[in-house]
Request: fold
Amino acid sequence: MADHGTNHGTHHRTHGQINRLSGGQIDRNKPLSFTFDGKTFQGYHGDTLASALLANGVRLMGRSFKYHRPRGPLTAGSEEPNAIVALRSGAYQEPNTRATTAELFDGLEATSQNRWPSLAFDAMAINDRFSNFLTAGFYYKTFMWPAAFWEKIYEPIIRKAAGLGALTGSADPDVYDKGFRHCDLLVVGAGPSGLMAARTAAEAGFEVIIADEDFRFGGRLNSEHEFIGDQAGADWAASQVAHLGTFSNVRVMSRTTVIGTFDHGIYGAVERVTDHLRTSAEGQPRQILWRIYAKHTVLCAGATERPIAFNNNDRPGVMLAGAMRSYANRWGVSAARDAVIFTSNDDGHRTAADLHRQGVAIAAVVDTRADAPSAHEYAVIAGTTVTDTRGRLGLNAVQVTDATGHSRWLKAGSLGVSGGWNPNVHLTSHQGARPVWNDALNAFVPSPSLPPHMSVAGAAAGMLSTHGALHSGVDAACKALEIDPRTLPALPKADDRPVTQSAFWCVQGSERAWLDQQNDVTVKDVKLSHQEGFRAVEHLKRYTTLGMATDQGKTSNMGGLAVMAELTGQPIADVGTTMFRPPYTPTAIGVLAGRSRGKDFHPVRLTPSHYWAKERGAVFVEVGNWLRAQWFPIEGETHWRQSVDREVLATRSSVGVCDCTTLGKIDVQGTDAAVFLNKVYCNGFAKLAVGRTRYGLMLREDGIAMDDGTAARLAEDHFVVTTTTANAGKVYQHMEFVRQCLCPDLDVQLISTTESWAQYAIAGPNARALLQKVVDAEFDISNDAFPFMACGAITVCGGLRARLFRISFSGELAFELAVPARYGDAMMRRLMDEGEEFNVTPYGTEALGVMRIEKGHAAGNELNGTTTAQNLGLGRMVSKAKDSIGSKLSERVGLNTEDGLRLVGLRPLNPKDKITAGGHVMSAEGPVNAAHDQGYVTSAAYSPTLGNMIGLAFIKSGSERIGDRMRLVSPLTKTSVEVEVVSPHFVDPEGERQRA
Amino acid sequence: MIINHPLLGPRDSAEFTYLGDASLLNRPDPDTATPKDWHDYAYLRDNPAGLHRELWFHEGGDRSWLVVTRNTVTHEITKVELARDVARGLASDVAGMGTKRSGG
Amino acid sequence: MRYSGFKVIKEALTGHKGWRPAWRDPEPQSHYDIVIIGGGGHGLATAHYLAKIFGQKRIAVLEKGWIGGGNVGRNTTIIRSNYLLDGNEPFYEFSLKLWEGLEQDLNYNAMVSQRGIMNLIHSDAQRDAYIRRGNAMILNGADAEYMDADQIRKEYPFLNFDDARFPIKGGLAQRRGGTVRHDAVAWGYARSADSHGVDILQNCEVTGFRIENGKCLGVETSRGFIGAGRVGCAVAGSSGRLMSKAGMRLPIESHVLQAFVSEGLKPILPGVITFGAGHFYVSQSDKGGLVFGGDIDGYNSYAQRGNLPVVEDVCEGGMALMPMIGRARLLRMWGGIMDMSMDGSPIIDRTHIDGLYFNGGWCYGGFKATPASGYAFAHLLARDIPHPTATAYRFDRFETGHMIDEKGMGNQPNLH
Reply:
């Protein structure tokens, strides 16, 4: 039968929907128009893309990965391996979308994938002719000679063939969101068992979430022709959903896939909010990732039908029998007007009966069992198998072979295959439990060691009858929530026929019989894998790629396992099963990221003077999550260096102001505050006088420098500690560790006050003069009254409480003034106003960096987590008179070698030469290689004060090499310059300015 | 994961940062410890496959350090204590925990 | 049996009857000269080099499950030698050179693909650090290339150059870095070792060591006692569990690292990209999947699975860096157990027990090290002295203060 036959439609509105039957849960009053590969079709509201295409007589929807075999839908759900298309267009294009779950909407655009030039004629289908050469793992055995050819020739060819769909390269234009939900009972799946579990819990007053990936609740009830009580199954499901909707303690989440089971009752769930709409409302998220915290969970995920392997079982028109039933009953669609059913169990016969009822001609039911039940309406051929099929782009004939080996061909456009059902155990094994084999069902069922507080009901638990599903749903809810089942109404009457499944996986003598249809893994490949020793399940999977396609092996793993079991002569249970891992179905990366993208990737922390700086035209730089002013260009400046040089020179000659709020501030209070600081700093703090500040160095317990800063003693029992910007969080955590875990009995409390105080460095010869204009008169800040390293609580601007520290990072006469953060903006503006007479200059992080390098102060580049106090030239700070964190392990021999690194300064012999941070230092003469490496440059800057570049470097025995000429090389940036080793204190080495 | 904070009740583990084995509470006595004691304290771990007592810091919360007893194979948490309480218990057992009131 | 294109064609034309198992399935002998515990990449590589390069005989590899089932089967397949420190860089460069000749050495196509690796730079401090590192690489004989933002934009136009929270300011590239088909590495080494007479014993779990008078005489296994002249342990991820059977505590914690793969997509990523401002790195496999990962979950675990916060964190990094991947779908995620060491660097050393040798502590960098690790361990086992590129990987470096701390994080394993 051709794919474009005559119109058999029975209704005038079916417009070319030649395979649209009667009935189904579609709205025939809402016709929808859509395109596939540019051709326009009609479908109905309630259709999926696959059901609508089938209705239109289109069976060919995709191509397989390796052999580019023509393919149509195998299933009617999320387990689909074949009918994979690109949905939408432009930046909205969504590759590898299952036509079987894509809800039809008006104007839907879909395009086939992995074919060239067209779906019907695909040049790459030539691979199928060479399949005998392209067996499992063939690429491991060849393409090795000559060696250079792999990357240049072979691999590009292989890569070009890779993948199914394509990314557009454009940014995803949609918005995604995240949310958190809590419940007493999470019900995963809204088939008969799920609906009953939810209803039972809801009526008992528990908080319930019931989620299902489908857009219509009911599970298999929507696909079956059966009754619950006196209602059709689908109607019963709809009535249950309506009933659940009346409870305020129930949240019904359709189009929501629970993707993973995580620790302690946390589930990930993805709700597809607008995927079924042509366009979404402004700001409406496409999808939402829910983190669901569930006290109990009932898994009611149903079962997946399993195919049978036989030669050429992959043609468009070959389908799982249960899927055929779904198309017929739920969507009023058949893949063709005639069908053969191939089954190993009673379930296939249900398909035959339903299709027959819907007017599809049943050519035969081919049953592998000799004792197959008979039927009046159509032929049942017992003890027989399907051994081959025909039809280039779609099925047109089925070969049937009986036990004697006699074969004949039956003409049919569709073939339903039923090998039984596998419980969907995935979520039960996300925490490592392996499913166990059930001999009665010939299937894996959930492990008895389920994730804590999870139970399983319905088909997922192996209860394949509808009655069993209803009953087990109620039972699971009662057990989880301790509801007395005697208080509940009787269950409605439902199908309770016993379900048996035989273990029939593969027709004898099959070779090119597909197990994994998307990845083109056949029975022959499994045989080769066995022959070559890849017999463990994981080896089989990895060697053949079985189960690695976008359908995650939902319809293929079991068959592959069974074939391997037969080859090794082991029971399937002994061969084992591969692990199921999240996500349950492939999940858009966008929704897992949510809103954390673009500028919102990380939170932005703004300094108190940010808006003022923005008004001044500052250029900002990311410093961790902070945005800091990097420099403040003024009119006429075209290069950042001009601005930075000016800021440095202005500060050193008059006064500059810099926002240093980002430095960590930790308030330390308590009668043992000094004892505590004595513990965390390697240098002494016990005797620091009130009103004085001291530079402190903290070591990690392993003796490496962790951070430096200052501690100011505002009172006997009150210190303010500063940290570097980068380490603010880490140092606070460390200090809390020492306080709570190592010194639990000290009377000391800590709190981070980084955000509470706006802090400004005011530096330069006129710093005091400027400050005097804002500090209230009763506070004397003269050099005598408030000398270098003094600190104190003061007031400014007429009573505003403030803290003043006479500390200097720039090396100038300098203060740091802290005011409550809400006054930060006003304080900066006030300083600028008052400083006008001194030509006050705001400076940014660049000028700050230049001045600290000029002074030889260590910063993040020097405190890089591998350097010791010795390396930094601060070895003598490590007090031997007391125990402090890190002091003992800092004594290890490897950290105290004669030729250890020491912090030095470097200056270029030719003042025009560049000092490269990250450059390595070599001896002036001699080879340039790792064996002769003498050290490296940590920081470099142009010093406007000196008129040349300068650098800080760690050099072996550096302090003994002052005055030496060495070579600074940076082969990466292709520079090599001669340098002189100098003191790291380039400017005012005696420190006279800061004491002025 | 969910950590049942002794003061605040169940909290998502994402609010916490992790340090490691709670043996880090047992800092050697600086007056008597040998270099080997310091090495073993700082660098060697039992690293059990099973119950593990470990330190978590409630950074996004009340800034408590907690000692969490958790199974490293199943991730099941069976006990959560304030590290300070644990440390105090140790302090009364172990001399010279570097605090003037130890043993008091 | 040699593999070749000719052989593939011949077999295709004659019904594939000639293929034999890639390795034998022998019964354990009662005694071997050398027993390697761990049939992962490192153990199998060790056996291969012991037999082929160091001329050792009577070697067995003991694997508790099936070979290649540990971290060599669950990583993100990246190879590179872009290390900073003297203790590391020569070793990883040696490894990269072995990768470059691996397929011819093994007669197995592990698809070593030198597609290049790019570490992105987002701040001045990061630039300084990467320049230092690139220089260290070059000075150690490796290749490194500094790229500015414009060059990066030309090669990777799909990165976020428009509204990035942390703008790309440059990158450090290593063109010789790339990816390898990870499973094939285990199989190739196994097949070669087997062909040189090594017994690969699967489903053979070591349950204890027989140690008398400070000497290791062999191992108790699920298949009986196996005597050994020397025993080498290469079970990274399970090092703590195994070595505790010999009464050893290690400077190692076991942590879970998650990794992720997307559905197959047409080729769009040229090489490996590492996001310097988020926890994310990515490459594209020959089958088309985006293979990506980020940080370890951060708590001790032997569970081979992680939790949602890290999944989300990694995908956030991915979307921040490459906003085109939002519509690609995550297909699978899995967790591997890492030996996180106290300085982020490995250990290849003798133990204090005579005849017992240790190889572990690979953190999440073990895959790229596979050839050199095997070679260096073989060197140590065969000659009892460390290989010149692995002399720093000593147990006692923490006692002496000679840590090899690339990230500068100190003795907190989950920060490395």
Chain C is about 30% helix and 25% strand.
